[in-house]
Amino acid sequence: MNIKDVARRSGLAAKTIRYYEEIGLVRAARGSNGYRVFQEAELHKLAFIARARSLGFSIDDCRALLGLYEDRNRASANVKELAKGHLDCIDRKLAELQAMRSTLARLIEQCSGDHRPDCPILEDLAGQDPARRS
Amino acid sequence: MNIKDVARRSGLAAKTIRYYEEIGLVRAARGSNGYRVFQEAELHKLAFIARARSLGFSIDDCRALLGLYEDRNRASANVKELAKGHLDCIDRKLAELQAMRSTLARLIEQCSGDHRPDCPILEDLAGQDPARRS
DNA sequence: CCTTGACCTTCCAGTTACTGGAAGCCTTAC
DNA sequence: GTAAGGCTTCCAGTAACTGGAAGGTCAAGG
Fold first, then answer.
1. pLDDT tens-place string over residues B49-81
2. Is A73's CB within 8 Å of B117's CB?
3. How far apart are CA A98 and CA A75, in angstroms?
4. Is the CB of B53 under 7 A from strand D?
């Protein structure tokens, strides 16, 4: 398999696959012409990584997850712990975004959005109305 | 005011303020010793930026918002439009994170998290159980 | 006057995870 | 033979800082 087929089947961009090889996340054999040649096993790894990335795991997490996946003596506790850490991270981001969202939505609602310069959004940013700040 | 006072009063790191100056977001006068000297006006701008950043606006958005803030002939419609665009962006991120969260939480629940290697999380990543995928 | 510690300066490198583009070789089909 | 499309490497850029090194400045204490 050449890189484009792997890209199509894994859902990753060819560039991304080259990048993953560069940082040592996967390996690729080379044909006599210098082209990368992929076996099913590498495709499988790449699909694994693509799935993990789509769940928001960092590249470092992916590396660890791949290591655990390939370790027949792993304890699922280790996987679970890693996943929980990531879940906490997601929850923190969610809380932050939700806080932003609610403040922003309130400000947008208050803004008439017409030709006049008066604007509660700018007033809030300028700190002119600290009482209303969430 | 020296940079550290401005940092304290704006809530930004001194490094960040230097960076904002470097990219032309704010200006700072210099004393005879080469130190940056800030007036209240610049502090105010920096606090404005800090607040906008805390609502998730990008640096480019901050630049635009500052421009609008300083334009006495602005139309609040322009501010509102910018803010709405950002709100949409936040909503997209929220949806993405929530999707990740729900899948991840489900997988974590299913994982016994003990010394054994069997792990629904890894199985999902490996695509061994596509039916259960969210 | 000297020293010490807390400031301040600039500059360079690193972070995350790619992405775009240039220059150039390889393959396949017509 | 040539044109299209795929492959290669390498370099640069993205966002928004952050850390650290090397070195100048300032105020207080002895």
1. 999 999 999 999 999 999 999 999 999 999 999
2. yes
3. 35
4. yes
